[in-house]
TrEMBL record:
Keywords (A to Z) from UniProt: DNA-binding, Transcription, Transcription regulation
Keyword Transcription: yes
The organism's place on the tree of life at top rank: Bacteria
Database matches in PANTHER family: DNA-BINDING TRANSCRIPTIONAL ACTIVATOR DEVR_DOSR
SUPFAM superfamilies, alphabetized: C-terminal effector domain of the bipartite response regulators, P-loop containing nucleoside triphosphate hydrolases, TPR-like
A GO BP annotation: regulation of DNA-templated transcription
Pfam family, one: GerE
GO MF annotation terms: DNA binding
InterPro entries given in the database record: AAA+_ATPase, AAA_16, P-loop_NTPase, Sig_transdc_resp-reg_C-effctor, TPR-like_helical_dom_sf, Tscrpt_reg_LuxR_C, WH-like_DNA-bd_sf
Positions of the HTH luxR-type domain: 863-928
Identification of the protein by name: Transcriptional regulator
Amino acid sequence: MPANLFEWENHLSALREMLRGATQGRGRLALVSGAVASGKTTLLNTFAEQAIESGALLLEATGSRAERDLPFGIIRKIFDNGAMPSDVRSEVIALLDGNGLESTAAGRMHVMSQISSVLLRMVEDRTLVVLVDDVHCGDDQSLQFLLHLARRVRQAKVLIVLTESPRLRQEQFTFHAELLRQPNCVRMRLHMLTEPGVAEALSGFLSATVAARLAPECHRVSGGNPMLLRALLEDWRTVGEHGEAQQRPAPGEAFAHAVLGCLHRGEPEVLEVARGVAVLGDARSPRLLGQLLDLSVSTVQQGVQDLHQCAILEHNAFRDEVARTAVLDATPATARDALHARAARLLHADGASALDVARQLVSARQDAERWTVPVLREAAEFALVEEELEFALRCLEHAHHACGPGPERTALKARLVSIAWRIGPAAAESHLPELLADAERGRLAPRDVAPITSYLVWSGRLDAAADAVAALARSAGTGDDPAMTAAVSASAQWLTMLSPPLRDRLPTVGTGVTAATGAPRDMAYLAYAHAAATMSAALTEGQADRAVIEAERVLQRHHLSDSTLQPLVIALLALVLAGRLDLALSWCERLLGECSARRVLTWQALLSAVRAEIALRQGDLQVAAHQARGAMSRISVQGWGVGIGLLLSTLIQAETGMGHYDEAMALLEQPLPDELFQTLPGLLYLRARGRCHLATGRYHAALGDFTAAGELMEAWRMDMPLLTPWRVDAAETWLALGDPKRARALAEEQLRLGPEDPRLRGALLVVLARTDELKRRVPRLKEAVEILEGGDDRIQLAIALGELGRAYRSLGDFNRGRVFVRKAWHVAKTCGADPLCRELMPRHADAGEFAAAAAQPSQGAEQQRDVEALTEAEVRIAVLAAHGNTNREIASKLFVTVSTVEQHLTRIYRKLNVKRRRDLPAKLSDSSLTGTV
């Protein structure tokens, strides 16, 4: 199929040929038809210029719907022309103003014959060209005259060119048919540009290569409509002028204006139909569209056909959302809202889905009626499945406004808050006061009590949360509602767990799960009760195993949702505090995977914060900082509420450990909620701030933070060294201040309390060793290394190894000291702990230290040289293998694959000249590596 640009050129060439024929006395008539904006006017204007250049007398006019009822309106325009001789114009005007037009049909015909004769007298000397654009908008009398003239020009030097829309009024059918009956009439059709035609049109502005590349997308958006295509290119140029690189044109302001221009050039009902299609989203149901617009089905079908012909619609829908938005924006607000409201009622009566009805209700921006409440609630839940959080929120807001005060309105508000919390806790803040008031009135449903309590705590409304739970407890005091009793109990446990100072203000209404006897198994409050119990067990000495069991039960039983997110996070943190970082990491990664494809920023942020804490306790500082920064980017700092304590604690310690002291100090400037230090996250923050002060030499500030944490726990009547080991931290600070006596007293006090956690005990032994005399230091440090090697904290292991290496050096065993220090340096390096690396092996000391070690006399020099031929990685694997570790155990300890261990062992055997694993202890026994692991 040839490109439409060639079609347009062919029509222009045909008109020129018809003009030559007219000049020779063979009158011609051309009827050009095409949809709105198909190029009819452009064709006419181009031909008009060429006709003038040929010396023809040009008379032209344009039909207008506004002048359709004005008799002989087009004819008057034709003769009101500067090229018309004045005497001829006067004669014709006199005929038009005479009484003959108002008499009988025969009289009108006589007048039209006289006017025709006047025109034909003018063609004796020059060719006459009559051009009428949009003749379908002309008045009936003018159409009759043009038809009369057409019958008389066959043997005259006259060319008549008319353009029309393919859609004709009923009274125009006769005119159209009579024109086409004339033997000298030629009909021309203009179609929209095909894709090759678009490419050809673009080549006039762009290179052929670029035009060919852009043609498919330009054709898809414009449908080949020349007006829309020009607007599309204008938008592209505008974007380019602003310096924004864009691979392909995208519709913008010019395109939107062009769409409206097309609509206003069509029949009035076409614009109305376009508005209806914009409101409903498509034109698949002419019946529904007609009911919406109060138009007949036939009128709607004709309007839809027109919209397809001018390429604004494709497959009963707008080609591009920009066009639909332009039509909606150009509709007066009152009319638009009324259309949306009416569409909602029609769709609901027609059995449409809740989502479709709700979209109309939300777009109407009017007060919702009572019947819309269940529809909006259902639509909100479906929208959540589609991850349309903002729309779900708007649905519930409309439903909430349509409800009167009572339990249903409160339930709507509670659900609204849970969805707002998905978007960001700050988005839920404005809704909490109303919910708090409803809670104090006893209007909360049991399923909403624990989640709403948790939101109040998160936002720092601790006292308000406690008052609300107390009020609900009083209303549930009779025990007539077991579910409410259980929900209040779970909420009280949750509050007490997160904010121990509230313990004395909360009533005792049962023990969570047991209080729910006979109640429905509402998973929400069970999750909060179980998670609170799990965290309490994790913070209690001697109950780590129970905490792990309970945490896994919570994680296995409750799926990730709005009402279970915080309990699942607490269960993960309980695993972390219980020392099961492996389980915590596995569950955390699983939960992150569940929400990775879902756009729930709050869920991702909280789980990323836990992942950061896990990485921190594993000694992976870079991962910890990356995850914490990611969590902070998903929720604003203000939105974190008291949860900011956990996030900043992790990030400050990670940045401090990596030596990024400026970044860590900047984080200390973040504003904090006043209530933070009444919660467990507040203890975490105090420790992180103290560690940052300790690392930067602000020892008294550090001591103040650690002591404050201890005083808080004493006031709360609960010692939680697994959460904040303040005595160990304070002991390190006293050592930095040069007071080993106080440091030892604090460490021994903590040791007497019996810490079972390997990480804590290892750190205590290191502190005690630093206060011991030299000969007793090595046994403590070796015990610390042995304990820490079985754990996950690689930074604490690096510290212990470094202290052990220093102890050996102090005793004169430089070779052994060097090995431990180098191993400590390597572990610290893998953690990203650059300050610890510099402390272990400062550059200016390396050469002298190891030269001195090499100069020390030793037995078995040849064997020592064999051992020294091993690389650092081979040394670590050789020692672990000598101590009886399997290849899998070695791989786990060194965070490498089993295959890597096997390859290293092959090289180790060759360098040490041994054939099997059991020969390693003997080969290493006299070297400085003895006892490394």
